[in-house]
Specification:
Rossmann fold; 14 strands; five-stranded parallel sheet; 3 domains; 457 residues
Length: 457
Amino acid sequence: MLLIVDDDLAIRTSLILLLKKEGFEVRGVGSPDETFDILKSVTPELILLDLNFSIETSGKEGMQLLQQIKKRYPAIPVILITGWGTIDLAVRGMKEGAIDFITKPWQNDHVLQSVRTILNLSQTLPLSGSRKKLEQQYHFQNIVGQDPKLLEILETVGRVASTDAAVLITGESGTGKELIAEAIHMNSKRKSRPFVKVNLGGISSTLFESELFGHVRGAFTDAKTDRVGRFEMAHKGSIFLDEIGELDLSSQVKLLRVLQERTFEPLGSSKSRTVDVRVICATNRNLEEMVAQGTFREDLYYRINLITVKLPALRERPDDIPLLSEFFVNNLKIIYQRPNLRLSPAAMKWLKTLQLQGNIRQLKNLVERTVLLSSSETLDIADLQRNLSGGAQPSAQKNLPEVGAITLEEMEYQMIAKAMQFHQNKVSKVARSLGITRFALYRRLEKYGISYESEDA
């Protein structure tokens, strides 16, 4: 059962008729007292609550009612209804525990979409438990790994994909945010429709409207023909807004409007167009900090993160590094027609020790560079090491690498390998030259898979 709370009989009746037509059981009330009378005997699956009661236009009474509902019945999801001019009220309501908000005048499709999404997300389903079971339910062919953290993420992705929930994907650069966005689209009801990718970090503020919403002929000097924007291209499908943390504040306002109202106007046109899109955003920045600093709009933040998926860094799931490396090598076998190409066991072990600040992207680039520059069919540690961080060993000069170009662990490996070569694998001499004990050196040699002789006189 769904519960509508609104003191305006016309609005209440309109929502009840809309939802009943779609097969929902619905009840409506017009005051806080009636609300709690209902809640004493029935637990609704969802409450739609209008914040602005006619006797109190500030939203104070509606906010107090929300607080009381969440205090007494915290498990019941609440969708807020408010006017466009009072979105700040909805943001306050989200902080108080509401799960979503709808602005008036609403679009019926948007209301139904939001209701179905929240009801789907509120269902508790058993975890699949293994990668094999996940593959039987969903399509994750391009996502490699078996780490428990990754499997938990894929479980979440599979569940939310069937809804139209806005998803925010966070994580360091190179962790695979675009692949996750594609997986959400390919496991959704929109999979046969367009999946449009937009790198917001590569669009200047002056081109933002034209790129996302399109323009009409004559809208500006070089606008010689009409142009379709990315949102219109994604109609009935999904739009992936990458690097959303790079948007300036003026562009954030324009984006919020289209996400909120599902309408936009092409640059130079006065005619509004309606769009039906699933919005998936991604960023490697901390949006909560940006909200606190005033560089990212709080209302936009709450609009895009109904579901947040945080991807772990590759160093947090090191056991997936060999699987990813093998996946890349198998692809390169076909591309470069080298069927016998493989990574040695020692190379696999060594790759797991790298911090790989660039994550999966850095690993892929390292493997591909090594394949391109090595004539050997079996790639060993030395082959990989030569192509690490720019493709060359450190020179004999004492110039330090640029900050961020190499990790401390990578630098340690390179220094030990170079010292072993210089001292012809004499462990005692290498240890002395590096200022560490032989025992400490042995541990590092084992760690990095560097061969050595037991006699080190």
